[in-house]
């Protein structure tokens, strides 16, 4: 058999010329050992030199990530002492007002952490504040992605992962909120029990499955504990890892600016610049949460007492991210249907289960809907300025307004008592406002965006005012204009303007009917979505504006004063 030509046999002469192994102290030995086996040097060289753009809005995602890390750290601490059991015991702890009262082991262990474990109350409050900050940062981060168009090709999958992260964070937050088994969390759990039972056909079966029998049962706290510390965190870790991997794979999106194109990234390398900044920012977030946990009381379960199904906390409110669901249920009129032996509670199912499904469903399909409307199949790595996508921006603000109206409705009783208003009047007003307010917000937002587009066009063509008021020989007053810098002009005109799709012919050249590539309905939606944009200056208009500015400057050099008055 012939030998392969690539084989090189070792010989004494070759071995003699090889450099002897050098063993150094410190981390050199372990690093060399790892590099020889898994190639950490090659991986590290590529990863540590990864370029990331620098903009303050990118910190929103980092806040969510760091809050999640803090949640894991503090959660491990709390897990050591928390007892996820609904077994009833007689409280014999440090809080004297509840001594001798029958409570669950979960509630008693929460009081033990708060009053008897050194630093327990601080860590518990840090954990709760971090949960609120995590959901809030993820929510605002998704809004940033939506308004700047960062969900477009090739990042649709990452957007779907983000939607999954948001939904999982709500489940994790609610499960953790319910674990202390106090009267406030029990009221929220009773609310969810009503949502489950409102599901048509299978509602009662689902309730018995979740609670291990009729509400409240004696298994829901252990099950929520498993969901809170194992199931949902595992899913969140997997989704976060996938999210970060796709960010690296697709390269980071960036805002328009000088030197930034769809094929490059302008910024700083991961190491040492970005690593140092990110590490410092983590400790800023951690310190901020420690201050909040130490100075601002949250969820004092001892003032609510243990949960009793026969009682309800007056003026009880859920965490902010679930308040909009409660508000929707409060203002929807009572609507029921009785079909055979079943009762369909539309007033609970539609605003509760249905509304949450509508929100996350709409978020999930939006990237594909926008691509269908615009016909845009290109890759996008340059972000949109929200003003340059006025209809999308207006839709986002309308959705936020609708969310705010539902959220305010969740506190209609608090609004009535605080401002001495009629509860019924507030409810009726909110039933109208959830439909009218988003429409008003949509119209105002789109007009503002179009006005900003006109201002950008004017600034690009005619420059900015120089701040000097000059009187002309004819007696009039005016202000000179200074051309905008080339870098700013590039930023203002870098975006791509899409033209509305036009309906295609329904017959071919021979008069035979065929399916049009763009239907009439799609063309009408495209005109509504894209047809209002203000045309950005063309190259010819920019050249003419530059020539006119040069000519005006020359005219302004005579003794009669500046002529470049626009």
Automatic annotation (TrEMBL):
This is Cytochrome bc1 complex cytochrome b subunit. Gene3D superfamilies: Cytochrome Bc1 Complex, Chain C. Keywords: Electron transport, Heme, Iron, Membrane, Metal-binding, Transmembrane, Transmembrane helix, Transport. The chain crosses the membrane at residues 58-82, 126-147, 159-179, 225-249, 270-296, 346-369, 389-409, 421-444. Residues 30-256 form the Cytochrome b/b6 N-terminal region profile domain. Signal peptide: none annotated. Its EC number is 7.1.1.8. Its cofactor is heme. Pfam families: Cytochrom_B_N_2. Residues 545-566 are annotated as: Disordered. It is found in: Membrane. Residues 257-451 form the Cytochrome b/b6 C-terminal region profile domain. Residues 545-554 have a biased composition (Basic and acidic residues). Its main location: membrane. InterPro entries: Cyt_b/b6_C, Cyt_b/b6_N, Cytb/b6-like_sf, Di-haem_cyt_TM. It is a multi-pass membrane protein. It comes from the Bacteria. It catalyses: a quinol + 2 Fe(III)-[cytochrome c](out) = a quinone + 2 Fe(II)-[cytochrome c](out) + 2 H(+)(out).
